[in-house]
Amino acid sequence: MEIILLQDVARLGSKDDVVTVKSGYGRNYLIPQKMAVIVTESAKKVLAENTRQRAHKEAKLKDLSLSVAERLKSLQLVIGAKTSSTGKIFGSVNTIMLAEAINSKGFEIDRKQITISEDSVKEIGNYTAKIKLHKEVIIELGFEVVSE
To answer: Does residue 17 sit in helix, strand or coil?
Structure first.
């Protein structure tokens, strides 16, 4: 039995994949759970239209992400932190602090999009962070931690 998956199913496939399964599995589990539909001509047309629209939306999002990435590359980010006399930070600089600093410059970046390459930033110095703007657009942003 051929079906079109409506969502990701473990060990079977991802959304909008056309897969062949045993008829009992399809009729008794996947279709009643709204995880799949049977392949018909109308279902194929709907799938093709959804794929076309999604590709168009993804292209727009990627272009927008590339333009934001170009603006972010020229950004000089300085984060102030309270430090001891030896240069150690009380606490550490995390993704929340980076997101606030970037957003104060006029961007809209969520902290979940940021990954700091070092384990933890606990001293004054220069560091890099990766920002995932789109699944295909990931940039590295350098930032400097200074004493307040």
So the answer is: coil
